[in-house]
Amino acid sequence: MLALRLYFFACLTLTPPEPPMTLPPLSPYTQAFDLTNQSWSDNESRLMQQVTPERGLFWIHIPPKGIVVPRKYRSRPLFRQASETLAAEGMPVHLRLSGGGVVPQSPHTVNLNLAYSVATDNPFPTAEAHYLALCRLLQTLFNRFGIATDTQTVTGSFCDGRFNLAANGRKIAGTAQFWQRDKTRPGRYTILSHAVIIAAQAEELTRQANRFEQALGSGVRYLPERTVSVEALSGAGSEIVADELNTLLIQTMPV
């Protein structure tokens, strides 16, 4: 019996792990991210509506200055007042589809949206694999700028989460997801997998996030030393980062 148990354990330990999930082929989405005529979440919904089981999309955009938060923030007592205050200061507040926390935006951030169809009856067991696939893509991007990164939480950074990308313990990108059931195709979901890359001015972005928390009457404050930018580590600003990201996606995800 002992030998049998040892043999069974050996079989378990020698079973090779499943290979990491790879992202499906994605085409560039060429429409402008339009905040003049549409809300932030409407832009995201517009992207997801173009997805089919055979066709996924990627969308890279550099936004104007502002704050983006999940829709749950609407229930905060001072949300409307805070939004009006920040809009008057040149920082409009937008609502997004995914969860998480406060994300400052500016011409020094690069946003990446991946939208594609997934065959599953339950997204929860597979969500982590999709996060990690996005993180591997971002790590490849940062490697092109000579920046080594790890996937980890970064306590004290804005919108902290398990699937941050960090360089020497400082957040350089954050990720989020939104899953929507495909009502026309049973057993399928459309996923919006999103990343915000801190291309430059990390301290100013943290200041923006803290200004919003202050206007909300929140005691939460983020620490500027917990984030870092691509520009600070490599000299490359947002336009260069966006161009390199576009090149990487076209090279690794041919249509």
Automatic annotation (TrEMBL):
<protein>
    <submittedName>
        <fullName>Putative lipoate-protein ligase A</fullName>
        <ecNumber>2.7.7.63</ecNumber>
    </submittedName>
</protein>
<dbReference type="Pfam" id="PF21948">
    <property type="entry name" value="LplA-B_cat"/>
</dbReference>
<dbReference type="InterPro" id="IPR004143">
    <property type="entry name" value="BPL_LPL_catalytic"/>
</dbReference>
<feature type="domain" description="BPL/LPL catalytic">
    <location>
        <begin position="52"/>
        <end position="249"/>
    </location>
</feature>
<keyword id="KW-0808">Transferase</keyword>
<dbReference type="GO" id="GO:0016874">
    <property type="term" value="F:ligase activity"/>
</dbReference>
<keyword id="KW-0436">Ligase</keyword>
<keyword id="KW-0548">Nucleotidyltransferase</keyword>
<dbReference type="InterPro" id="IPR045864">
    <property type="entry name" value="aa-tRNA-synth_II/BPL/LPL"/>
</dbReference>
<dbReference type="GO" id="GO:0016779">
    <property type="term" value="F:nucleotidyltransferase activity"/>
</dbReference>
